[in-house]
Amino acid sequence: MKSWSEFVLEAPEMAAAGYALMYRVGLGLGYLATIRKDGAPRLHPFCPIIHAGNLYALIAPTPKLADLLRDPRYAYHTFPAEEVDDEFYLNGVVRRADEVGEGVRAEFVSLGGTTTNDEVCFELLLGSAMLATYAPRPSWPPAYTTWRA
User: How far apart are CA 44 and CA 21, in angstroms?
Assistant: First the structure.
């Protein structure tokens, strides 16, 4: 597993395109998939936070927090955009990052997010990434770029 900053060093063009898709409306947006206790996937709207060069999550006391505390595996997919079908996907594991939680929280608020101050801060470590880019609509198939830690 690698950090976001390591991903940026190894695949700078892909990371820049992924960042643009994540932050296309100012605040990071996407879907976070976790694994329920029974092994089924659980999908949540999610706001990723890049702080000090790494990728973080502030997770409130919800079922997804219980999922991540029990099983640290995740998958992330950007929200679709109206103007383009491009997609960005990550998967890997989370690790608690309490030592940077206040900085992550401040970064999130500066971007327009809100916090309840009871979230757990996690760093999202990357196992792989995928970027799909499409020609103008209608278009199929996309051009895929992949990266592995």
Answer: 18
The CATH topology of domain 4-148 is Pnp Oxidase; Chain A (2.30.110)
- List per-block mean pLDDT (blocks of 10 residues) for the chain, which spans 149 residues: 98 97 91 97 94 95 96 96 91 96 91 89 98 91 97
Please give the single-letter amino acid code of residue 143.
A
Q: Which two tokens stand for residue 98?
A: 């309490």
pTM above threshold 0.85: yes
Strand 73-78 relative to strand 54-59, pairing: unpaired
Beta bridge partners of 59: 120
Instruction: Please tell me the distance from the alpha carbon of residue 79 to that of residue 124, in angstroms, as a whole number.
Output: 18
Residue showing tokens 């695949």 = 11
